[in-house]
Structures are given as C-alpha cells and as structure tokens.
C-alpha cells in the first residue's frame, strides 16, 4: 500500500510517500480503507520528536481518519463491510480505574493513533472495532476526517472541563486552528458569547464568519481590550493552546471564579505565573486531552447525524503532497483543517 512515512525525526524533508506492507488484521480489529485523513499540529510534533515517546520506524502518522470498512476480524460483531466510518483516535486499556470510571483519556496506558502507534496516512489502517463511529452515507469523507480529534478535544475542554453554559462568555485563542474552529461552533451551540483571538487579520474575520461575536489581535494586549469589552470583568472560560506567548495575558482575561483550560502549547511549554491572583480571584486552571468515549460519541453525533456542527476544511491535497501539507500547517497558512486523500 502507499503511505506517507518518516524514518527518523526531523525536518519536513524527512517525509516520504512510498510503498509499505499492508497491516495485519487481528480478531477484534477492523481493516479500514482510508478515504481521507486530516492533519493536526500533533503530526508536526510527532515528526519533530516528542520527548519520552519512542517510535518504531518507519512511522506512519495521522490521527483523523475517515473511510470504509474493508474487512472484519474473526471476533468482530456489529459491523459489516462497506460501512462508512470515522475513527476515534484514542486507545485505552479498558481495565484500569480510569477506564472503569468511563474516563478513557486518563487511562494509565492511554495512546493516540498516529502519535504512539501507526496512523492513517496510508491507503489502509487496522483499528480496534470499538474505535469506529458510523457516519451517514451522504456525508463526504473530507469534512468527516476533519472532525474527530478537534471536536472531541474542544468538547471536553469547553463543556466538561470548562463547564461552559448558556449566557456565559469564552475567549478562544489561536482562532485559525482546527480545535479553535470547532470550539467556536461548540461555544455558540452552548449559548455562550464568543471572543476569538488570532495574530492574523484574515483569520480573525474568518472566525467572525464562523460565529465569533468579537475578535481580537493576539499580538496586542488582548487582555486589556477584553476587560474593556466586559466592563473589567473578563470571561468565564479561556481556551488556551498557544502557551508561552499568550499565557500571562490569558490569565488576565479570566473572570473571578472562571476557568482557564489548556489543551496545547504550540509556542512553547514553559510559562511563569504569579500565584497571588490565582488564589485571590479563585479561578481554575485545568488541562484537557482528547475525550472519553461518551464525549466522543456525543459530539460526533452532533456533527454527523444532527449536523449542528460543521467541520472546517481549509484545503484538500493528495497524500503524495505530504510535505506541502506539513509546510502549510507549520507556516500557519490554514484556517481549519488540511485534509489529505490517499
């Protein structure tokens, strides 16, 4: 089969489009014919090398997968060949205390397809049957592939961790990214007022078109501007994934008793903070990674079956152009997701 791989960590030039052996099918697994796979910043980090994660090379990345059931393992029930699906990119053990409690993303053996294991940047992938979610026959594969990782992450971050509810306010940083574009829609669906920040003027306007009520320049003192807009109150929830560059201003943007939810650190992981505002203003700083199975199924249903959320696709490229796709994402050219088709 054809696949996009890299044989060692490093620059974009390490990516190859080449032939690889087809994956083996286990008894509880399903072979998926990949029709579309979306790129995430996670793919950049995995290619560059994440401390503590040791890959088996050559590595195939790609966590966001849409396709068709090609073959079933001997013990698989409830699925049939030809069904159209997306893949839950989470992998969990099912027996630890967190899995038993229904918190799979806290699993002691938690992994992500395409990060810790072989991903979907290929013509075929084998995944556990428990990771499949059926999509309608009329739903295109390209936007389908753009949905899983970003919507599950945004849903857990905003609704579960941030406890965002109708009538509240939220600041979404990095408004051009995939999770941010999903978060804008989820926040609007929840009935919140949305402030979105980006360093790029065109992306700020795209965020407004997507549903943001107000947009801010993330290179300026957006915390000061936001407090002026909210009568010095701040917002109930700040969704933070930028890290070092925006951290201090993000903390100044949150209202007393509010939530700062962190799901990434694209500009760097090391931050400093004054603890005094934290305890005086009693705000909450929480992390969010992916989602549990219930959250995944809930938000995927909203995307595919109720169609209340619409994945944002920036562009579609053939998988053979994997280097161009990584370069576009690394340069921050996109609004929404870059999708590749094998």
List the helices and strands and how they pair.
Blueprint: E1 2-6, E2 15-19, E3 29-38, H1 41-48, E4 59-60, E5 64-72, E6 84-87, E7 90-91, H2 97-100, E8 111-112, E9 124-128, E10 132-134, H3 141-145, H4 148-161, E11 169-172, H5 178-190, E12 193-198, H6 201-210, E13 214-217, H7 222-229, E14 235-240, H8 247-253, E15 254-262, H9 275-281, E16 284-287, H10 293-304, E17 313-318, H11 322-330, E18 337-341
Structural write-up:
The chain has 342 residues and is α/β, with parallel strands linked by helices. The protein has two domains: 2-147 and 311-341, Medium-chain alcohol dehydrogenases, catalytic domain (Quinone Oxidoreductase, Chain A, domain 1), CATH 3.90.180.10; 151-287, Quinone Oxidoreductase, Chain A, domain 1 (Alpha-Beta Complex), CATH 3.90.180. The chain contains eleven helices and 18 strands. The protein has helices at residues 41-48, 97-100, 141-145, 148-161, 178-190, 201-210, 222-229, 247-253, 275-281, 293-304, 322-330; strands at residues 2-6, 15-19, 29-38, 59-60, 64-72, 84-87, 90-91, 111-112, 124-128, 132-134, 169-172, 193-198, 214-217, 235-240, 254-262, 284-287, 313-318, 337-341. It is globular, with a radius of gyration of 20 Å.
């Amino acid at each position: 089969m054809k696949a996009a791989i890299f044989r060692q960590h490093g620059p974009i030039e390490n990516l190859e489009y080449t032939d690889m052996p087809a994956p083996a099918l286990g008894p509880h697994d399903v072979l998926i014919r990949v029709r579309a796979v979306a790129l995430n910043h996670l793919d950049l980090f995995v290619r560059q090398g994440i401390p503590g994660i040791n890959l088996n090379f050559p590595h195939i990345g790609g966590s966001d997968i849409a396709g068709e059931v090609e073959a079933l393992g001997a013990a698989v029930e409830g699925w049939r060949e030809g069904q159209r699906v997306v893949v839950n990119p989470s992998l969990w053990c099912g027996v630890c205390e967190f899995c038993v409690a229904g918190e799979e993303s806290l699993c002691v053996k938690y992994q992500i397809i395409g990060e810790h294991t072989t991903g979907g940047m290929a013509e075929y992938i084998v995944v556990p049957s428990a990771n499949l979610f059926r999509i309608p026959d009329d739903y295109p594969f390209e936007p389908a592939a753009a949905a899983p990782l970003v919507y599950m992450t945004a849903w857990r971050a905003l609704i579960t961790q941030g406890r965002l509810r109708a009538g509240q306010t939220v600041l979404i940083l990095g408004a051009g990214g995939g999770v941010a574009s999903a978060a804008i829609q989820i926040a609007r669906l929840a009935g919140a007022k949305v402030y979105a920040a980006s360093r790029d003027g065109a992306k700020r306007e795209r965020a407004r078109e997507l549903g943001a009520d107000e947009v801010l320049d993330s290179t300026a003192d957006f915390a000061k501007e936001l407090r002026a807009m909210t009568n010095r109150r701040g917002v109930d929830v700040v969704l933070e994934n930028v890290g070092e560059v925006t951290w201090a201003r993000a903390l100044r943007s949150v209202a007393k008793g509010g939530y700062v939810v962190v799901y990434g650190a694209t500009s760097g992981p090391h931050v400093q903070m004054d603890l005094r505002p934290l305890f005086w203003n009693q705000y909450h700083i929480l992390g969010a990674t992916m989602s549990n199975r219930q959250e995944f199924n809930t938000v995927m249903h909203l995307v595919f079956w109720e169609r209340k959320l619409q994945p944002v696709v920036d562009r579609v490229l053939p998988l053979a152009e994997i280097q161009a796709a990584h370069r576009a994402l690394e340069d921050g050219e996109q609004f929404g997701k870059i999708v590749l088709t094998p």
